[in-house]
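so the lab meeting is tmrw and i was supposed to have these ready like two days ago... anyway. pasting both below. for each one the top line is the aa sequence and the line under it is the structure tokens. i havent really looked at them closely yet so no promises
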Amino acid sequence: MNHYSIKDLEYLSGIKAHTIRIWEKRYQLLSPDRSDTNIRYYSDEDVRRILNVSMLVKNGYKISSVATYDNDRLQSEVLRQNKSLHDPEKNIDQLLLNTVNLDTFGFEELLNKIIKENGFSKTIQNIIFPFFERIGLLWQTGSIFIAHEHFVSNLIRNRLIIETAKFDNHLSEKTMLFFLPEDELHELGLLYFNFLAAENGFRCIYLGQNLPFSDLTSLLRSTGFAFVCTTFINAIEKPELEQYLSNLSMVFNKNKILISGRQITIHKPKLPHNVVVIKNNNDFIRRISG
């Protein structure tokens, strides 16, 4: 069983620790245990309960009423609330609850409903990316574990691959190459660019994570692409980044190279003539449509 502090509950639920303590005293909402040193800690069941309670309170329920609900009633009310799938915050809260519970079926069932109502691209941009920002914050603060991040990353990764495969562009004359440099493993953003390119009629070649530069050069000397796309998320020093971009530019000297990622934003590297920074998803579409 995992142990959570009251600060963890605050980060997860968005309810201030002071408010949670008041609810405990006034309504006996939660029943924390205490460590040998008399420090409160909460269980997985407490986390699920506070997430459900916070979701209902955010949607107008009175805490005095919600606090009397047993767990079955709480879950029933949460499900009833989520019949409307246009509220991004509500969707993110529910996806987070499924993630904490490692509930694959619940996560995918809700995701399918959101996609059906909002479309795949809008779901990724308006729900999934903000959701991952929240997941990242919770992981940094220790409120969730890396296993939770891996759990949800694999679910979204699989969905991106499935949705991209629906486009039959194998005869397209427009070709785009996607890859991640060596030691780069964060691929969801690149996979979404891959999806957008396929949606816009490109034949996409996706080489995946952690590609050694030597393999890249030997593999692609005789192949031409309209665009080459990669991202830089992991920490890298500015001189090393600029040298990598210079080498990449020489290998693909006849191609337009599209780059993005946290390290590009941080370092603002000097760019070779054929390298362009992608600011966002709309900028990516504009660049490849020109």
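ok protien two:
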Amino acid sequence: MKKTYIALLGSILILASCKMQHKSELEHQLITLEDGLSAGQVYVHSDIKALAVNTFQYGQWFDVRFANVSGFTLEQGDMFPDLDITVFNTSGEIILKQESLLGGLSQPEDAVLYGTLTLANPILSGQSYKAVYRLYDTKSDHELQTEMDFELLPDSQITITPDGLMAKEVYLFNSDTNSVLFGSNTPKASNISMDFQLLEGYQKKNGRIQLGMYTQLVDSRGRVLTENKDALPNFNVEGITNDQVLKATLSLNNGRFNSPLRWTVRLWDKNSAAAITATATLNIENN
């Protein structure tokens, strides 16, 4: 196990059009205001099923899709849409904003337009937000606006015990799929990590931050599978930025496990008594 720096950041992907159907999903609550443009259908599509209506998990993504949109000025059967997405916190402050994502490029008249929002830093779990999608015609003043209030929850499978150190986000990450690992089901032969982001509470000594990391993996019979007293023996840095992640890594082979596994990671400050412990339950998928 080792530490690395990788950032999981909130982002809005460059938008595109599509003709695919959305998967079965909860009916999220949206408000759409039409001013010249009209959509036959506006819906939310996401990578996994949402936890509840307008409720998602940190690291998840979703997009708002606009189908059967009318009101565009057409040229040779094509429309020229553009889209802005803005995310607000409950105080009305802009957390994330991206403009002109489609660039006004031509799209077939029957295209489904969408924009994908990754729910990660600076969008934080345990808080509520409003996402505003503004779709507009670059050939006229026609537009429509869709708003969705949503809540972002942390991973319920991870128990966090802060003791002087605080991490605003702790989550499991599957490096094979380059995505957050949701729920407790974990594929065999996978490489996963427990990521600590936005760490606070450490002290500096001679202008340096020194951290240690204890890791332990235990099966359902109480047998210790792996243990590392300090996975960060040489961690000595001047600072940790908001987009840096402290990462404990775990490689699972194709063998059979007495599942579930309990994975404990403890970060501690070598310049003080502060620490934070996170424990995750891993149900290994034995096929």
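from a quick look at the 2nd one: The mean pLDDT is 88. The chain has two domains: 11-153, 158-285. will dig more after coffe
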